[in-house]
Each structure stands twice: as structure tokens, then as C-alpha cells.
């Protein structure tokens, strides 16, 4: 409607109004027509302008002009003329003349809910990481609790779907293609033999020299393996601090907590007072690794962020309840093992110990030999996703503000005799976000099968020692950021 | 859990005549909610446990079982009969069995849709034809392209 509010009263009054309505010639665009809205320019300027431009045209116009005082528009710098001059410049680049059409905020509609959500996300964009985490985890609702160590069959495929991770067997090129010159080899051998003796001594101490009583059920790992892993981890870190300077600045923690909370996918609530509504699927991981090493600088990426990887992320159409996965409601925590202010805020390596329930002997007795590797993969994928995701959130990235650089971490899962090595690269946190609907990025996890370190221990001797496993362990610990 | 039968007294050296057949039953059912490919759903006797289910399938049918999960479905006691007495629908136990060695199972379609074809010259066939013709007559003119008679002369 053309500013009916403006012209309507004038229409009844004066010939000025009728003149205004009929004029169409060469006047600046924003002025005579209704677009001025009347509020911008007072009526008199309109008249002046039309009079001025119509000065050469008709006697009819001159009659109108003559009523106006002459001094008003004699001075070239009067405010009315100045504001007329600016009209030309503004109309050359017309900005939005109407406010944007937004859906309501309080209506009972999908667009209203969406608008409220998007406004909340806009608010979060400029906040500090602490406030971002608080804003995203404040509201508690029922969520799926993902256990990294699980009995569920086929859990690694399901967990890959939940975390959008592609699994690549084998380790990245960094660890597989090592071309060392001969001189370094000798130096390496000396260091390696020292570390070998360290590990062997720790092994014999726990399993042979120390007299340990019989444990109650499911106590073997706690009594034999956990102290052994503690000893080798602290021993290796402190001896390799010479070769790898970042380990000197690192923080080695035992029994830390790692928590992560995220949202992925949607579901329609089937029954209840909220049936029919669409709800996001929330997940939470609460992990307790045996130990972790955190460093103040980020590890280098294994593969560039935009690289094309052939491995696919498995997509499972069934709901997570079929895995089986259960839902609970409690505090949504995001924690890397230390609080936000800690200078060592990037992850290096985590060590996990396989509990008694999932030990390979027990699984073989239960006729589940295939579950041994599945369990290790599922454990690695979820623990490392939680750790890297929490690291990224500590830096201020979240699902709407995706990571600008990949977050890299490593994990070693062991049951005392068999070691498995895993590397994880977090390329994206935006698993289902409004700002990036079809996100092409995916997270990557490399992993080995379980490699045996030794065959057995007899009479103070370790039989069947495998050096490759120790070398791989050392290589993992020697990984350092580019500085 | 055998029914009480009278067996002859057993003495050392006698042949073992006693047979103990369990009175357990397992019924394979179609899942109500969609299950993964390796999951089979059974309705089992209330007294059975997960170990019973596993042994039953492995020993009698030699089906490799990876995992068994059970739950009890409570059925309503709210319905009332013509004498206003509450009638209980019996509860039952459901077992979800996951097969090992990457085997899969899809519940078959037991009642497939069959095209009913009457014999030639029978009464039903003539009736069916008559009904078909009636339906044809009731349909609007296809040349109008779905537009109703309201928009016309």
C-alpha cells in the first residue's frame, strides 16, 4: 500500500496533494513517490523539489511555488537543500527499505522454534568457550549413554555411525613408512635396549618377583596389569623426555575422566504427551582411561583436512535402542581430563586397559572370538572421539562453528600381553548442524589389530618378546608437534 | 522340568530309561519394531533364562548364538468380562537372540497377498464383473482431466 497514511489526509486538503499524486517526471526516486513514507522528508521539501525540477515546465507548477517564501531556498546550504542533495547519493545504492520478514518467536510453529534456536546459536557464536560449553550443556534431557567398553555385538559399526568416523585398518603413513639412516639406527638401538630392559623389568616385577595373593573374581587386571602399565608409561615418558622435548612440558595423569556430550540426528517421539514432535538425539560418553598425556601444543595432522578418503562412514537406519543403547538424564559434561584454564589443553596419548570381563580368554570361552577386535575398535573410536571433541570444545569450536584445524590424538589399548595402537583425527564437530547441512567432512580413525608383546613369563624370564611392538610404542610417544 | 511319569526304579547297571524333555516352548515371532539383521525375536516360557535359551538353540537346533537378551511383557488386567470381573491377559517373556558368525535372519512373509480369481462361468465371477462395470460407470469422464462437474455447464 502506498503510504496511504501520508497522502490520505493531504488529498482532501490542498491542490498540493493532487499535484503530488499526478507528477511523474524526473524527480529523484525516493522523493515524490510513496517510498519516502512521508516520515523521511517533510512535505515542504517535496514541494520544493518538484517545484525546482518543474521550474522549466508548466505554469501550473509556478502557481504552487509562488506560495512558498523565497529566502528558504535561496541559500545553497540550507538544511532542506542539503537533505535533498543526499537523496541522490542514497538512492544510487538502495539498501533494504523494509525490515526483514521473520517468523514469530512465540508461536506454536516449527518456524518459531527454529528462529528461537537460531537466535540462541547466534548469541553463542560470540561467547567465550566457557559460556559456549555452559550454554550447550545447560539443559538436561534424556540422552543415550554410550559406553566405550561394551558387550554389544557389532558395536564398532554403530559407534562409527554415531560419531561419523571412518575406520582405516593399519596406521597412517607417518608410522608405517619410516626410512631411518644407519647412524640414527645405532643411537636408536641403544635407547631401545634401555627401554626394553625397563619394560621387561616392570613386567617381571608385577608378574614374577612380587608375591601377590589370589584375587577375587575379576581382579586380575587390577592386580597385575594396571601397575605394570603405570610403570611403563611413567618410565617411558620420563626416559623419552630427552628425545622428545614436548614430553618435558607434558602433563601425565592417571585415572583421569574424559566426558563428552553431543547431538546427532533427529527422531520423532512415538508416544507420550510429546508424540509427533521432532527431537534431536543426544549422546554422552563418560570414559575413564588408565592414563593420559596432555601437551600444550597441537599434534600435527596425519592427513589434510580436505583430503579425499575412500573409507566410508557406515550409516545405520535403525534407532540406537536396537544396539542396545539406553537413555538416562543427568549432567551433561564436557571434560578433557583437566579444566579449561590448564595450559596442557591438547591431547597426545591415552592408555586404556582391557577389563577382565572383555579379556580374550573369557570371550573365547563364551564363544565370542570375533568380539575381541570389535571391542577394541569400539573402545578406541569412542574414547578418542570424546577426547578430541572435548579438546575442540575447549578451544571454542562447536557444531555451528566447525573446527578450522584437525585435532589429533593417539590411544594404546592393552590387556597386559596384547597391545593395539590407534590414531584419531577429528575433522568435524558438525554432525548435524543448521549451518552446514550436508557436511562432506568425516572423522578418521586408524588402528591396528592386537599385537602380542611377549608369549609367556617363566622363571624370571620373558619368552617370545616382540621388538616391533615396543618400537611402535616408542614411535607413538615420540610423536611431537611441529615447532 | 519333566512331567511326573512313573519310571522303573533305577539301580546301578540298569539302562538309563529316564528321558527328561523340557516343557519349555519357544515361539519365533515377527518383531514389532524393526530389529537388526542378525537379531531373531522369540516368545519364551516365563521360567526360561538366557542360558536356557542359548542351550536350547545351540544343542537342539545347532544355531550359533552370540548374545541373548530377555524382557517380560506385562499384559493388561484392566479388561472386564460380562460379569464385570477383571480378566487378565497372560504375561509373556520375549527373547532377542543375536546370531554369531555373521548370520542373518529375516522373518518370512507367511501370508502373501493372493489374487483371487473365480472360476469361469460361476456366479461370483459374474457378480464381480457387474460390480466392476458399475464402478466404471460411476467414474467421471477421463477427458475432463480430473476436474469435477461443478466447473462446467
From TrEMBL, chain A:
Primary location group: mitochondrion
Record's keyword terms, sorted: Mitochondrion, Ribonucleoprotein, Ribosomal protein
GO terms (BP aspect): translation
Compartments, record wording: Mitochondrion
An MF annotation (GO) of this entry: structural constituent of ribosome
UniProt keyword annotation of Cell membrane present: no
Domain of life (superkingdom): Eukaryota
Pfam families: PDCD9
Region (Disordered): 1-36
GO CC terms, sorted: mitochondrial large ribosomal subunit
InterPro entries from the UniProt entry: Ribosomal_mL37/mL65, Ribosomal_mL65
Protein name (record): Mitochondrial ribosomal protein S30
TrEMBL record, chain B:
Coiled-coil stretches noted in the UniProt entry, renumbered to this chain: none
Predominant location category: mitochondrion
GO cellular component, one term: mitochondrial large ribosomal subunit
Composition skew (Basic and acidic residues), residue ranges: 111-146
GO molecular function, one term: structural constituent of ribosome
Keyword vocabulary terms for this entry: Mitochondrion, Ribonucleoprotein, Ribosomal protein
SUPFAM superfamilies: Ribosomal proteins S24e, L23 and L15e
Subcellular compartments: Mitochondrion
Listed InterPro entries: Nucleotide-bd_a/b_plait_sf, Ribosomal_uL23-like, Ribosomal_uL23/eL15/eS24_sf
Signal peptide positions (record): none
UniProt xrefs under Gene3D superfamilies: 3.30.70.330
Gene Ontology BP terms: mitochondrial translation
Region (Disordered): 108-153
Protein family membership: Belongs to the universal ribosomal protein uL23 family.
Protein name (Swiss-Prot/TrEMBL): Large ribosomal subunit protein uL23m
Originating species: Pygocentrus nattereri
